[in-house]
Specification:
With about 250 residues, the protein is of the alpha/beta class. Strand 5, helix 5 and strand 6 form a beta-alpha-beta unit. It is globular. The relative contact order is 0.09. It has helices at about 20-30, 45-55, 70-80, 95-105, 120-130, 140-150, 160-170, 185-195, 200-210, 215-225, 230-245, and strands at about 5, 35-40, 60-65, 85, 110-115, 135. It has a six-stranded mixed sheet with strand order 1-3-2-4-5-6, sandwiched between helices. It folds into two domains: about 5-170, Response regulator (Rossmann fold); about 180-245, Arc Repressor Mutant, subunit A, CATH 1.10.10. The two termini are about 30 Å apart. It has eleven helices and six strands.
Amino acid sequence: MSVSYKPQNHSSQNQTSPNHTSQNNTSQNQAGTKKRILVVDDHPIVRQGLALLINREPDLVVCGEAEEAMGALHVLASARPDVLIVDISLNGPDGLDLLKTIRTTHPTLPVLILSMHDESIYAERALRAGANGYIMKQEATEKVLVAVRRILSGEVYVSDRIANKMLKHYITGSGTLRNSSIADLSDRELEVFRLIGEGHGTRQIAEELHISIKTVESYQAHIKEKLSLRSARELMQHAIQWNMNEKAV
């Protein structure tokens, strides 16, 4: 488990001369006005890149990092962030599971989902699970800052394409965000489907999601039925192809 908590400690400034006290207090007050961000992603290079991007902003600072769900909950309790940036693909429970857990204890904490996965499948799921925004990693880095500030202001952030589709759906009842029959899968079924496409076997999926092998097999049966697949081999082929298409987006 890799976690990182970065407390704002200025204890060494307590020994400065009286002439510098007001300057130090001003600096501390400015630091205190920055919005604190917790970054949860299983790739260190992504976390480091986001930290570099965010920490150069005068009003934002990364207060902690985590690579998986349990670590994120640990840092969340100690770092007290103002907003979370969470990847969907994490080791163990995925970002949507983490989001649902967070919502039980922090119902109003802004959460931005940042992911490589196709927004036409995941954006609506993320919003239903309680996310305040969804942005794909392929977007320009500046848009991450736009998204963070927007959800901090109480708004929702999605791409213009998804916003238009969702608006059309709510106005006319059409234009739902669908991709073949994949949209019919539940969040957990989609998670199992993704792991199958990454080459994980039944036992490995059970261990990673902390569920029984029998439960995984039940999910696999539901997936095959919903996608009209006749065998485990077809399920694996379909999942691998879907994962490859996802990474090519």
